[in-house]
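Methods: example folding runs. The two proteins below were folded one after another, and each record is reproduced exactly as written to the output file, sequence line first and C-alpha cell line second.
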Amino acid sequence: MVKLYMGLDVHKEKTVIALAPAGSQDVEHYGNCSSDMVRLAGSIRKILRKYDLSKAEVSICYEAGPCGFAIARHLLGKGFDVIVVAPSLIPTKKGDRVKTDKRDARKLARTHRSGDLTPVHIPDPADEVIRDLCRARTDAVDDSVRNRQRLLSFLLRNGHTYTGRSNWTETHLRYLRSLELNNPVQRLILEEYLQAVDAGFERISGLEEHIRDQMQSWHRLPFVHALQGLKGFEFISSMVVASELGDITRFDHPRKLMAYLGLVPAEESSGDHRRQGPITKCGNSHVRWMLVEIAGSYRYAPKVSKALSIRQEKLPREVKELSWRAQKRLCKRYSRLTMRRVHANKIKVAIARELCSFIWELAHLMAKMPQRKAA
C-alpha cells in the first residue's frame, strides 16, 4: 500500500523533490538534490528512513523531458515504484500563471496522489539504442539536404544551372567537380561545399551500416522483417517505426495507437453538435511523419511488385495475406477519397491512420507466432 507520493522536477543539474502523504491534503516541499542518479537514489533512501517507509510504500513520478528515462530505469532497478508522465497531459488551472520548480514538483506529487497523471511507456534499453541510431541517421539526412541546397543556391547565384535529368547522380557530381569559376575565392567555396556534401553521404552510409550491424542481435528483428512485407516499408522505415513504437502489443486497440501518434482528429462537441478539427499531432511526431510519407505509396493500384515479393520471400503466409488485405483496403480508400476531391495531404493522413490498424494487427500476429511454432 502506497503511503507517500513523491514528485520530482528533474533538471540537468538539480532535482526538486515534493512529498504528498496518502490520506492527506498537504503537500510538502522537501528540498533540492543533485540529478546524478546515484545521489538522487541516496536522497530518496534518506526520505524513506526519515518517514520509516519501505520501497513498496512510496511511489515516484517525474515528467518526460530532455533527461530521458535513465533515472527511471536506475530507480526501477533499485526496486522503487517509478512512473514517467506526459507533460502535456498534466492537469493545469487556466488562471495559474506562476510556474516555478517548487510549484511543478508539488503539482506532480499532488496529481500523482489523486491518480490524474498519464504515464508514458519506458522504452527498452535495446530499443532506445536502435532509436538513437535511427534518429542520428535522420539528422544526418537533414544536414545533407541543407548542404546540398546551399551548394545549388550558391551556383544559381553565380549563373550556373545544371541541365541534366536529375541532381546528385554520378553525372551531376562529375559536372559539379568540373565547374570552373573565375574567382579563386568562389572556387574555394565550391570545394568546401562539395566536401561537405561528400562527408554527408559518407555519414549517412556509415550510420546505415551501424544500424544493420545492431539489428542482427535486436529482439524485434522478426517484426522488422514482417513490417517490410507491407507496401511502402523498406529497411530504414521499418527500423524507425519498430524502434520508436517498441512493444506495440501494449496498445489493446488500434485506436489507441492512432491516438498515440496524433493521427486522430481533435474534437469540440457540445450537445447535439459535433465539431471535429485537424489531427491532434500529439505523441511521436517522427513515426507520424514516416507513416504519412509511406501512405503516398497506396495511391497506386494493388500489386505485389518485384521488390515487395523479394522482401516477402521468407515471411509467413499470414503476414503476406495481411499485406495484400492492407493493399486492397488502403488503395481502394485512397481512390475513393481522390474521387471526392479531398486534399492530397488529408488523404495521406487518413490512409496513415488506417495503416496504423494493420501495423497493430501485424504486431499482435507476430507476438503469437512463437506460440504457434512451439505448439
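Second run, written to the same file directly after the first:
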Amino acid sequence: MNTIMIVAGESSGELYGSLLAKALRKRWPDVNLIGVGGERMKEAGVALVSHITDAFGLVEAVSSLKKIKTAFDSCIDAIQRSMPEVLVLIDYPDFNLRLAKTAKALGIKILYYVSPQVWAWRSGRVKKIASLVDRMAVILPFEEKIYSNAGLKCEFVGHPILEEIEAILGPEGPTPFHSGRRTNIKSALGFDPDRPLLAILPGSRPSELNRHLPLMVNVIRQIIGDAGILSEKPLQICMPLAPNTDEERYGNYLEALKREGVTVTKGETVKILAASDMALVTSGTATLQTAFLEVPMVVVYKLSPLTYQLGKRIIKVRHISLVNILSGREVVAELIQHRANPKEIINELKKIMSDGNYREAMLESCRRIKEPFTGKRASERVAEIIMEMAGPFGMKKDEA
C-alpha cells in the first residue's frame, strides 16, 4: 500500500495537515496516511503514530523533552516500518529536521510544507533544509525567493487558512466584509447585532495559554468593571479556543471569564472573528486569520523571561505579527512582554473604537496583504506536489 506520512508539531500545523489530508484523499482515495497531529488530522483519515507536542521556546521545550522524545521515537519507528513514498514535514524545525535526516538516509522523498521562520532567526537553517529535503512549499510570498536562492525547488502555494475560512463561511470566504454581512453572522451566532463584539484569542500552545489567560482575565475584569470604557452600548465578548485546548486544565481561568459574561467556545474561531468588531489576538497565525477577515486588532505576546531575553538577541525582524511583517511597517499595535498589560491593551482597543481613521487605515492594510493569497488553494496544490513526488503511481491516480 502506498503511504504518505504527515508530521505536524502544533495546532496551526495540525490544521494544515488535516486540510492536506482531505485534499489527498479526494485525489488519491486508497492512499495510506500516517503521521503526527491531533483530532483534526485523525478525523481527516490520518492514522496517528503520535500526538502533537506544542512546545515553544527554550523553557517550554525543556519541560516537554520527555514527550518530544517519545513522539520522535514513534516517528522513526513508523518511518522505518512504513517506508512512505513521501514524508511531509509541517514547520516545527528542530523536530522535523532530525526526522528528515533519517528519512533521507533511507532514500525517502521529503517535502517541507510551511517554512520555519528563517527570515526572523537562525537563517543558517536554509542551507540545512536545502541539503535535506527535495522540495519546499511555502505559505508566505517572500519565502519562495529565500529557498530558490539556496538552490531548492520551492513554490509559494498560498495560505491554507483561506481554505478554512471559505469552508466555514461559504464561497464568498474572506472577500471584503460589509457591515451587513458581519451583522448577519453575529445574529446567526446568537449575539445581539446592535452591540459591539470583542473576540479574544489567547493562543493554542500550553505555554501561551498559561501566560495569556491570566492577562486576559484581568483585561476583561477591568473592561466590565468600567462600563462604557470601550463603547456606549454594552460590549459582548467571546473567546474561541483552539480545538486541541485542554479545557479542564485551564478551567479556573475559563470559569472566571464566564463569570464576567464572556462566551467561551471551542473550534469556532473563524465564525467568531467574522462576527467581531475588534479582536485581542495572541501573535501567530491568528493575526493573519484576523486580518483576512478584516477585523481590527491588538496583538499581544508574553514569553518566559529567559526565552524573551534570548529572543531579543537573536531575532532579526522588527515586528512579530504577520500583519506587520507582510506590511513592512507597524499596522497593528504589538504589545509584547511588559507592555502586554491591561492599561495598554484597553487604550489600544479604545483607539480602535473611537478613532475612525486609525481603524480604516488598519483595515485597508489588511485588504492589501490579502491580495497575493487570493485565488490560491494551498492544500490542493500541495497534494499535487506530493503526487508528483510519489512517482508514476501517484501521477496515475492524479490523472484518473
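Comment on the second run: DSSP finds 19 helices and 13 strands in the chain.
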